[in-house]
Amino acid sequence: MTTEESSPQEEARTLESAWLFAGGPPPFDRLEAAEVVPAMERLLAEVGTAFDALEANLDSTWEGLIEPLERMGDQLGRAWGTLGHLLGVQDSDALREAFESMQPAVVVFSLRMGQSAPVYGALCALRDSEAFAEAPDTRKRILASMIRDAEHSGVGLEEEARTRFNEIQLALAELGTSFGNHVLDATKAYGLDLQDPADVEGLPEGLRALAADAAEGPEATAENGPWRFTLEAPSFIPFMEHCRSSGLRERLYRAYITRASSGELDNAGCIDEILALRREQAAILGYASYADLSLSTKMADDSGAVEELLEELRLASRKPAADDLEDLQKRATAAGDEEVALWDIAYWAQRVREERFAYSEEELRPYFPLPRVLEGLFALAERLFGIRVVQADGEVPVWHPDVRYFRVEETAGGEIAAFYLDPYSRPAEKRGGAWMDECTGRSALLGEAGRTRLPVAYLVCNQTPPGPGGKPSLMTFDEVRTLFHEFGHGLQHMLTRVDEGLASGIRNVEWDAVELPSQFMENWLYHRETLLGLARHFETDAPLPEALFEKILAARTYRAGSDMLRQVYFARIDLELHGRNEEGEGESPFEVQRRVAEGTTVLPPLAEDRFLCSFSHIFAGGYAAGYYSYKWAEVLSADAFGAFEEAGLDDAAALAKVGQRYRETILALGGSQHPLDVFRAFRGREPSSQPLLRHSGLA
């Protein structure tokens, strides 16, 4: 229903729609899917009218051109971004329908703004004006990015090419949404149902309780079943690590690697269409491949620099990864098993870990209750960066009862940011993985009553939920690492000191540098004071034994070669798929995967492996021709942590001093400077890959 067709009562309701909140936190308690379409239609009309006026009265000054564009983008981003966020954490048919209904109009309007020849001309005129030559570097960098983005939006295309370009953009938006929905639906649809207690022998109690909760029927218990094991990480990973039946592991593994690859949820066709359209899009813009288009916006100079890094890491990790597999094979053979298969790796890796380091991942869980982990994480942030995280539950509306809200303050006083934390897995409505996203960004322009608007972040994880009887969420070490990772992203968003909203926090940061602060935070889990400060038994409050910490430290590089090679494998597939400039070039995407696997895996994937059908990072996320960014940024993050090691990890005063420098550069400068300049400002030199190889035990 359009606003013109609305009744007076409906129109009055639309005018007050919670989706059009002007400022402050999103009113999650009042957002209704039924109001999305009328609210977005009204918003697009309003912003469209403002954009018409801007085009008709162009003023090639910062205040007359850039600031109005920032206001318009923020208006649209608040509503559309909130809807996108809810789709990730509270998916429903009604929200999907509303999103898919409005997505074409939002894409078309975004293209209209990006392809405005008058605005593009005004941007170029501002860049070339004498007055702007004296502008701050931050503004020059923002303007250069806006001009480049307009060019990548097709502003310079002739009518026929522009029409086709716009068709491609619409199609890619719809395909990306469909791809992600298929993965979510396929993940939700599968369950491995078990009833025989013998089948769950050896499985951790927490996993059995989780599986009993997922089973149909109210009578299910952790002890007696029935049990349902799913493809969500809190279920899938521990099942693969602890299930004693290779046959059952095989069933779950095959389901995992073939997600979204059959029936109505088959993503194979989406992959072909997405790749073909991206190739065509790049060609229209004058690039030889989509990889070239993507890399033109990255920190890496070109594909050669990326390939050089990936090859360095591949050569360093290939032999250690082969040795890892040999270790597992020896252990399996000693137990009477035949050749280790892909679905056996996680199981035997846990057995070798337990024997070599005399502890299991499950043994650690009781020492990592979420409340205690948060206390330790926040204490670390206070020691390093001079901030205080304050609980603020109940101060703002949230989308689910489990969601927490925190305010961030300077230790000397004064609020500087806030964030939501949505920690637990909810397979029925929440997509998998973990992420940080922007709720609002810091901006001097968009603040109320002359005050700078403060940044607010969403931190989303999918960790193990709380257990029965009031038992808290007991986290695996990997789940703790994930929380630290996302908090690192949040710190860059929240501790920015850039007042220009278009370059504050994570905005305008090259994609292959954006993982630096997140991966940096993971290093602190191997710092004695940090880990022992957050690890206490949830029942006895006993600290993590010193001997267990030493074992964790010793196990840090366990299977590092395998983990490194796996990431190189993913990155190489991504670049191969997006580096081609002719359709197919004689290979299907799955044939490309198998070819790349020959040099980047020690056990080849199964013939029926359809991992690409759930590779949302590159087909439904922001990592297309950019998955290498994880390793590129990990080089930066390991080298950055090296500065703290050099200062002395046991010297609190020295760590605080380096932490302040890190805050004032890596965390504060956001997208106001090129990331290499930011890194140099912190480290005093060019980045080196040696700290990463050293931390991984590969140098």
Summarize the structure in words:
By secondary structure, the chain is an alpha+beta fold. It has three domains: 154 residues, Neurolysin, domain 3 (Orthogonal Bundle); 68 residues, no CATH class; 407 residues, Neurolysin, domain 3, CATH 1.10.1370. The chain is built from 27 helices and seven strands. It has a five-stranded mixed beta sheet, sandwiched between helices. A two-stranded antiparallel ribbon has the order 1-2. Helix 4 runs antiparallel to helix 7, helix 7 packs antiparallel against helix 11 and helix 16 packs antiparallel against helix 19. The longest helix is centred in the middle third of the chain and has 32 residues.
Helices, by number, come to: 27
Please give the order of strands in the largest beta sheet: 3-4-5-7-6
Instruction: Tell me the CATH topology of the largest domain.
Output: Neurolysin, domain 3
**Which stretches are low in confidence, meaning pLDDT under 50 for 5 or more residues running?**
1-14
Overall SS class? alpha+beta
> In CATH terms, what is the architecture of the largest domain?
Orthogonal Bundle
CATH class division of the largest domain? Mainly Alpha
What integer value in Å does the Rg equal? 26 Å
Shape: globular
